[in-house]
Design brief:
Layout lengths: L9 H28 L6 H27 L35 H10 L17 H18 L2 H4 L27 H16 L7 E5 L7 E3 L1 H10 L42 H24 L6 H19 L22
Antiparallel strand pairs: 1-2
Amino acid sequence: MRTGATIRTLESLRLHLQGAIKLEHCTIPPYFCALYSIKAGGNTESASVIKSVLVEEMLHIVLAANVLNAIGGAPEIDDPSFLAKYPTALPFSDKSFSVPLARFSPSTIEVFRRIERPEEGDAPPEADGFETIGQFYRAIEEGLEYLCSTIGEDQVFSGDPDRQITADMLGGVTAERIVAVYDLKSALRAIDEIEEEGEGLKHAEVWDGERDMYHPERDEVAHYFRFTEIAAGRSYRQGDTPQSGPNGEAFEVDWEAVHPMRENPRTEDYEEGSPIRIKMEEFNLAYSDLLRALHKTLNGETGMLDRAFSGMFQVRDLARQLMQTPSGDGVTTAGPSFEYVAPTE
């Protein structure tokens, strides 16, 4: 059995929490492309599932940033290296698979299931070369506990509390999922929130312990099992387990009701000044501006939060336009490439 890499210094802990922010963000462009490749009015249940996961991944960025800020770090988001070039392996992973930007399809959903796969019960924490995201977060938890026991909790949690994103800054169903971090107990609670939404309660149940974001009458299913619902075309119901699979209500999954987005698009694929490239560059600037607003928000300028929210709607609308724009090969449509663009005057 692998013993797993360990975190034994504050510098390493901050590095890995920055890696957690980058890891959570790395999943957003693929989930975003799958969601907005679905044609309007089709695959409503699948779209709802992917959208709920996408929103929670954004919240996970905030939670990881709260922990990083609490231990005296500073989230780095407005940086070209923050945006992955797809297809890509997950940061700090064992690189056993790569994640593309692709339309909604069976193979895409299978990649999403691999991203969110729960760890085995005896899997060791892995700060580097992890096989599952759960192993990575368990290494961070162990690092927090080790440093608090060796150098003291006050030395670990030396960050400015005014940099925390708190529940009262957000509205709606997302607010209750935000954990402001000031000590070891709240840091572990924030990480538990991330883990349980991804893998399920105690890594042994399909449920994550919360109510469904878009169907509050239902218990919420963890990310891996939500994608399993799409693959099976059937919802989980009470009494279902990871071993049983979903046995609830069936729903239609129409793999054809999708814009044929070109996989892993890049602006360099098109001539400079061409209409498609201009649209892609407009999206990339808007997305980079969104990241800049998020960077400022998570580094103490909490008044930028509204700008980050408004930026989400702008990039959504631009992505929908690209999904419907022919790429020029007679088969596919263009799509967002998520490339970094420096700020304009």
